[in-house]
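Input (TNase-like domain-containing protein):
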Amino acid sequence: MSRQHPQRAPWVERLLARHHPDRPDLTSRVNAVNDVAKTARALPYPAQVLRVIDGDTFLAKVPIWLGLDITVSVRLRGLDAPELRGPCPAQAQAAKDMLTELLAAGPVRLTDITHDKYASRIDALVWVGTGQDAGSLMAAAGLQKPCP
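Output:
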């Protein structure tokens, strides 16, 4: 059995071992694709904020190629703010207000982008105009769960 690549999904390993055990060229191509995908997730993507949904999610227009933009919901990585319709509406509104203020402070960049558990949004580190991570700033201000 071949040694598993640390970044490769187990199903990719099984597929390569089953169908192409003697094709190192295919393995190197798969490794190259994995490397490109890892690099793309780390690149900073500028984002135009369209609206703030709640204390940890906003809607953004993100250019992904020349003349090609996507509109996507972005969730702040590492922050879980109270829900607006949850048990702590005042704390939830304070989190939404702070996120609105942070995102309005200047250009917004997204890095470390991955799929969220919900298919229609992404998780990302969100860098605001001050050059700081919005999620860390909000956590430092105490605007995250729990609330009794």
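The chain has two domains: 10-42, 45-140.
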